[in-house]
Please model this.
Amino acid sequence: MPKMKLSISRGIPRFVSLLGVLSLLCIVYFKFYSLKPFLISDTKCIYAANPHVNDHLQTHILEIVIKKIEHELADIRDSHNDSPESLRYGSFLADIVGLIESARSGGPETEVVTGLNRSQPVHISPDFFLTEEIRKYVRVKPNRLGKQNFMGANGTFTSIGHACFSMKKELEEYMNYDVGDICNDDWKLAQRLMVHGCDPLPRRRCFARAPQFYTKPFSFPESMWSLPDDKNVRWSQYRCKNFACLANNKTGKGFFKCSDCFNLTHHENPRWVVPVYPDPFSNSTPDFRITDILDLKPGEIRIGLDFSVGTGTFAARMREHNLTIVSATINLGAPFSEMIALRGLVPIYMTINQRLPFFDSTLDLIHTTRFLDGWIDFVLLDYILYDWDRVLRPGGLLWIDSFFCLKEDLVGYLEGFNMLRYKKHKWVVVPKVDKDDDREVFFSAVLEKPPRPF
Model:
C-alpha cells in the first residue's frame, strides 16, 4: 500500500503538468487555426492561406511547449515501458509536437525550396477533410531546424490521388482509426478507393491486420506449384474461404477474370509451355512459348514486369529460366497478391491508374495478359503504352499476350501499338471462338523497343 501511494503521488504532478502544457497548447494553437473547418461541412480544395504570424512572443511560447513535450518523450524512452498505454501516450505527444511545429512553420502556406533553389509558396488544403488523421497527413511536413534535406527540399510533401477529394466520405471512413491500434479490416474499401482514382492512398498509423494463425510458407521450389496453407490468408472479404474453393472450376467464386488461375495443376502448369489452339480446326493460336521469346534475345532478358490478372505463373515460369519478374495485380475477388507472395514470387499491389514505380530505361521485358482488353479507352491506352515505353530499356521487349477486343475496334487498338514504332518480332490476330458469335478477336505481339539516340 505505501508503494501504491508513492507511485500515485509521483504521477499527480506529471498529470497536472501535462494538463498545463495542453492548456497552453490550446491557447496558442487556436491563434493559428480556427474552428471554422469543423463547423462547415465543406470548403474549397484550394484556398488562400491565412496571413503569416510573426509575433515573437507566440514563437517563444511554442518553443517552450515543444521543449517540455520533448522532455516528456525522453522520460518515456528512458523508462523502457513498452506497455500499449505508454506507446499510445508517446505517439500522442509526438503528434502534438508535429502539430505545433507545423503551426510554427506558418500554417497552411509553406515556403519550400525547389530544385532551382527558388522559394515558392505551396497551397495545401487539409481543412477540406474533417478526419484529423487526413488533415495531418496532407500538410507539408517542414524539415527540422529549417534545413534542406539531401534531396534539396526543406519539406516533405505527402500526396494523395486527386479523386480522394470526390470520395471524401469513403476516405474519412478509411482514415478513422486510433493511432497505434490495429487497423480495421477494410482492405476492400482501400482497393475501391484506389480503383476509383484515390491513388495513392494516404499512409496510416495503425497496424495492418494479418492472418490470425499464420504458418510457415512452403519453401522453394515446392511453393511454386502447391496451393498454400489456407491459414495464411484473411478470407473475410471473399466469397471463397479457402484455396480448394478457388481451384474448383465448378465453384461460384465471385469473380470471372482469371477464374481458373488457382488451378495450378491443369490450367496453370501448361501455360507458356504448351500453346492452346482456340479453334481445333485451325493451327492459329495467340499463345507464344517462353523459350521462343527468350531465344529472340539470348542472355539479354533478366528483369521485367508482368502487368496482368493472375497468380504469378508467368513469373514462376520465368524464374525457372533465372529471370526476375515482378507481378503487378490487385485482389479482384480473390487473394491474388497473397497467392503470388506465398508462391515465393514478388507481387506489387497497384492499379492501372498509377505511373509505374520504375525509373526510365530499366526493364528488359514487360508482359501483359487478361488485363488490357477491349474495355480500355484509346486515350488511356496511349498513356499506359508511353509509360511502358519509358521504363523499357532500348532493346527491351513488350509482350502483348492475348489482347482481345471487338473486330470493329481492332484497327483503333492496333494504331495505338503501332505508334510505338517498335520492331515486330511476332504479330498475330486470330478469332476468339469461346462464344457463339464471331465478333471478337485475339491479338498477340512481341515488340522490341528501338534505340533512340536523341
Summary: The first strand starts at residue 109 and ends at 113. The radius of gyration is 28 Å.
